[in-house]
Amino acid sequence: MRGAQPKADRMRRSTSLLPCIGLVLGLAAPAAQAAPDPFEPVNRRIHALNQVLQAHVLGPAAEAYVAYTPPGVREGVANAFANLGEPITAISSLAAGDLPRAGNAALRFGINTTLGLGGVSDAAASFGFAPRPMAPADAVCSWGVASGPYLVLPLLGPSTLRDAGTMIATGAALSQAVGPDVLLGWRSGDLFTTYAAFHAELQRIDAQALDSYAVHRSAFLQRRAATCPADRVAELEDDDHAPPREVTAAAP
Prior knowledge:
Elements: H1 7-13, H2 23-26, H3 40-68, H4 71-84, H5 86-96, H6 99-114, H7 123-126, H8 136-142, E1 150-153, E2 157-160, H9 161-178, H10 180-208, H11 212-227, H12 229-241
Antiparallel strand pairs: 1-2
Helix pairs in contact: 3-10, 4-10, 5-6, 5-8, 8-9, 9-10, 11-12
């Protein structure tokens, strides 16, 4: 079995689907304002609910999973879930017009499903086909669709109107294609294993944050601006016209 999948790839694979995933990547960056936040009062309440769920449900479950599951088993499970996402990457890449990435995802799925024992081992990487995940929301972003307002989803965490709408539409299509039970099992397992890998880091960041909500929002929007051309353009336009603003950062 090859080494663990890079953390950045796991974060990108779970865009908008886990509380605070992407926070580690974007924490040191300045605040991004690509998406407005007109629903901040409601978003803050949902964020607080998510924090409670993390503290009392997700966190203990993640800690038990890490404590009692050997690292090699956790890696294999994460690889298998990631392999099931390769067809989504292929379709998203085709929709975005990125044929090389679509071909890479298709080859990875074929190689890992066969030689990688259902994706437990990332055999494709040894042939030079590294993971290059792309979510449906990234494809919609590539079409120039604006992000819309910033949203915090119950349990699922930071998102935007565009990304949340794309996620709902994708979920409905996949539910019809593979069945709701299969989809729920795959998504739940994938999200949990990804969250378990970052739980300790995210817990530390939350403990240091002066304003946890502001840090999560800034980090998420900064990461989306780094990967989404439409959001990056919006951020630059906002920076050109907006007055200077105070940036909330984590405590050292």
